[in-house]
Amino acid sequence: MDKLQLRQIGDPERDHVQRAIIAEVEADPARFIERYKALEYSFKGRYVAADLFKETFEVYRASREARNRYNIPVHNAAAALAAEQLARVLREPAEPGKDTVLFLTGIPGAGKTSTVLFEASYLHIVMLCTRDNWPMPGTRSQRFRPWRMQALNPSSQSSMRTPN
To answer: Nearest Cα to 77, choosing from 38, 28, 42?
Structure first.
C-alpha cells in the first residue's frame, strides 16, 4: 500500500485523529481490510467503497456527530484501503457465476448504493466512485489505470459510467 498523504485540516484535534488513523493503517492495513470484509454490506469485500471503509475506524463510527466531525480526517486512509482492497479482489479468481465487474459513479442520491444492494449477488466486484474520488487525469488516476488496463478482462466488465 502506498504511503498515505496528510491533508491540511487546520483543526488540532482533527489533525491528531488524521495522524493517528494514518499511523494505524500504515502499521497494519490487513487489520482494517479484515474488519471491512466482515461488514455485512461489503459483501465479503466484493463491494469496495471508501465511505464504507470509514466504518472500520472506531473514532469515526462512535456516533453521528463523530461521523460528521471525522469524515475528512479519515477519508484518505479509507480511500487508500479501498484502493488496496480493489487491487486484492481483482487478483482473486472470480467465483462461478460472479464474473462481472461494475464501476458506479454519480452524485449523491443517484442510486449507486441501491444498485449495489439489489444487484451485488451476481457481481464479482463492485467499486463505488463518487465525483470526488473518480479517477481523473493526474495523480489520482495513477492507482486506477493499472487495474483498468491490466486486471480487468473486457469480457468481465459490464458497465463503466463516467461523470458528466
So the answer is: 28
Compare 46 and 55 and report the one with higher pLDDT.
Answer: 55
Residue that is written with C-alpha cell 479468481 in the block:
93
What contacts 29, CB < 8 A, 6 or more positions away?
1, 81, 84
Sheet with strand 157-160: strands edge to edge: 47-48, 123-128, 100-104, 157-160
Q: How many separate helices (H) and strands (E) can be counted in the chain?
A: 7, 4
**pLDDT at res. 112:** 74
Residues near 124 by Cβ (< 8 Å), separated by ≥ 6? 46, 89, 94, 95, 98, 99, 100, 101, 156
Among the listed residues 114, 41, 51, 102, the one whose alpha carbon sits nearest the alpha carbon of residue 81: 51
139-150 burial by CB neighbour count: b if 16+ within 10 A, else e? eeeebbeebeee
Under the banding of pLDDT at 50, 70 and 90, the label for residue 160 is very low
pLDDT at 24 > cutoff 50: yes
Higher pLDDT, 111 or 39: 39
Whole-angstrom distance, CA of residue 145 vs CA of residue 164: 20
